[in-house]
Amino acid sequence: MTRGTITLLAILLAAAVPAFPEITIRTKDGRAIRVQVEASEIASIEFGSSQVPSPPTSSVSFLQTLASGKTLSGEAWGDAGGRWEFRLKITSYDEFTGAIVGEITWPSLSSVHRIRGKLAGSSLTFTEVEAIRPGGAHLNVAYTFTLSQSSATGTWVDHGDKSHGGAKILGP
Questions:
Q1: Residue of 109, 104, 52, 112 lying closest to 82 (CA atoms)
Q2: Successive 10-residue mean pLDDT values, the chain, 172 residues
Q3: In the chain, how many domains are there?
Q4: Same domain, 112 and 74
Q5: How far apart are alpha carbons 42 and 35 in whole angstroms?
């Protein structure tokens, strides 16, 4: 687009439409960036040639797998002993904010918990916030993972009893 075309587009948008509840920009890699804006507040729309750094290639495929809603297997272990298998499913992912909601199932503890957190770049963080099916697993356990090409490794801390350990989420 030429600068004149862009200026004309901005003027038309500001003058012809009283308000936009949201503008969606689609990136080449399929992401949707949503911005809430009122037309009366738009002074100009500019396009630049500077590139925003993309997440490391190694973490993109696993991030997309997590965000897709697939159920993935994992394992957690305590620094003081014990190992527990789990299944993780992200049921809601906001591409704009990175906010996630999902479920973590602990078969050996007969528990299913709601999780809330954030998925962005090569990082996944979440906390078990609500018992969907109460059992032997604890609530208020926080997890921090670093994503790689085919898995995620990280740590957990139980804010109730102060126990802690490691965890790994495996790819499909």
A1: 109
A2: 54 50 68 70 64 46 84 94 95 91 96 95 94 95 93 94 95 78
A3: 2
A4: yes
A5: 12
Evaluate whether 133 touches 110 at the Cβ level (below 8 Å): yes
Q: Quick one: 30 and 72 in the same domain?
A: no
Same domain (yes/no): 32, 74: no
CATH number at residue 161: 2.40.128.120
How much is the pTM? 0.65
